[in-house]
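HUMAN:
Just now I want nothing more than another pair of eyes on a protein record. I would be glad if you read both lines and explained how they fit together. I have put the entry right below:
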Amino acid sequence: MCDGFRLEVMAPRINKDTRLCISLSGRPSNIGTRFHNYLYDELGLDYVYKAFAPTDIEAAVTGIRGLGIRGAGVSMPFKEKVIPLVDVMHESARAIDSVNTIVNEDGVLHAYNTDFQAVLDLLRDHGVDPALSVAVAGSGGMAKAVVAAVREHGFTDVTVVARNEAAGTALADRYGYVWRAGLGDSSPAALINATPIGMAGGPDADALPFPSAAVEAATVVFDVVAMPPETPLIRAGRAHGHTVITGAEVIALQAALQFALYTGVTPTPDQVRRASEFSRS
């Protein structure tokens, strides 16, 4: 077995015409690789997906164009860094100045952001009340997608919590929200983490992005970090009986949207569910 696939099956399938899709991430995991390759295999598509951790993002994006790579998922910390390197910014990316998907159309690099739609869909699917007060931790590319989705969902009482005052204030002001460097003693009803805090392998893998007292007082916790599936914030939320929304849900939905952009094929909800389960098996 090789990452869930038999070598004797994979070897004949890859040929000179096989289309390559990749991911560009500071700390790549096998989740996206297994998700996309599972669906390629199930649907009989002549594609293969590989994750990379580029040390030179400009060279990596140049390689997409030069090698005819069909598409690339873009994760932290490259969601804003790739903007000057692409040719066409579509509305989903342009509206929030953040890219998580690049599609190569005959050498023209098109940029999208599927994180926004995934976050919005999850807020709706979990029935999160837009009347709740909300704190969003972060001010980078993922935080931009989250705050835009929060606005689209109808939240009005929102605090952007970020150590970077310039970036945090700019993000909050863009949507009529407020910025704070920390929560202090406040206790928003919904907490959303859009930082790398809690990510496996990172310096803050065991940390909470919000004070423990705020987590206990909340009713909804949402962590966009996908690895591990149960981050410290999600574990704490479950322990307190809160509604929880995980990064695993985000990554599955946004990956399904990426899959459709790369291949022109929209997987069914059942196919997405099974691919997501396989990606974590």
User: Anything to note?
Assistant: The chain has two domains: 7-113+254-279, 116-245. The mean pLDDT is 93.
